[in-house]
Amino acid sequence: MSDHGAHGRVPTKGERWAAFKRSPFLPATVLVFILAAAAGLFAGSYTYSMANPTPHRIPTAVVGAQDTARGKAFLGGMEKALNASLEVRGYDSMAAARRGVDEQAVFAIVGAGPGDKVTFDVSGASGASVAQVLAETAPKVGAEVGVPVTVKDVKPLQEGDPRGLAIFYISLAAVIIGFVGAIQLSVHARGLNPAERIGFTALYALLGAFVIAAVVDWWLGAVDLPFVESWLILALTMFTSGMVFTMFNTLFGRWAMIPTWGLMVLLGNPSSGGAVSWPLLPSVLGHIGRWLPPGASVNAQHTAVYFGGHQHVFPFLVLAGWALLSSAVFWVWRHRHPGGRESAGAHVAAHAVAPAG
Prior knowledge:
Layout: H1 2-8, H2 13-22, H3 25-50, E1 58-63, H4 69-81, E2 86-90, H5 94-102, E3 108-112, E4 118-122, H6 128-145, E5 149-153, H7 166-188, H8 194-219, H9 227-252, H10 257-268, H11 283-288, H12 293-306, H13 314-332, H14 344-353
Parallel strand pairs: 1-2, 1-3, 4-5
Antiparallel strand pairs: 3-4
Helix pairs in contact: 3-10, 4-6, 7-8, 7-9, 7-12, 8-9, 9-10, 9-12, 9-13, 12-13
């Protein structure tokens, strides 16, 4: 009678809350709100960085133009038109200025042409969005100040990539598939031990990067890649992204996707300079992006494709630094990772102490 009464009793609020916390409905409810917030942040981060690109600081080489009245008038007009975002750097010769373009120290060259004309050389390969802004602004400024201006793209993009977005897309693919692969390993290969998990992350990074490069270059012919260099950059990117998720999975368990998505997608990709060149990004994003894996990947790949022989070590240090940090955190706290399996010795020992019968 008393048991029947207990079963018929209305649970208290505390009991209902305790039951709710044990049920799958609590994490599902939390996920509903997290996904809604992530959707808004995703749209907002890309819109903030890409919807209205505005020049902030555009390094520009000047060769001789600053020594003529018309050259000074043109430079002043460009400064005014671009809201004082033109950062003028003097060079002794056009050859030195071209080296500055190749080293990605400057985005354009202003020179003194014959008959008081001004030459304005842009570099589409340095950043399509920046080159477009400069190429559209220069003739208008020349007309306003009465200076004939000749605009030329001295470092154009490849024909298969007229908007310069292919590098951004292949780097984005490496980032996304990198951490998605780590997620799938944690779900479908949960029993991998730490060294095995790192090894398989490296394996799918190498193979996945090869396929990305092969599809874009050999199959679609969109971009002529320096294949081995591009492949290895993509592989390092994919491995780094996978290990970043693995690190967060070690630290935060089932909620690891939140910091991974925030770091790599919400912050990393819009600030990478791949879709909008860094001089047109909000200044904070332009500086942060270079220190994150997506930005480092875009920078290394961009230099490999368009400025071969002028590769910088910095983006590789950024990628390697994140990969080493993530791997070290995972290795040191590997006992906290929700994967792995018992060693054979531990399994035998467990059976040895088990009671007979």
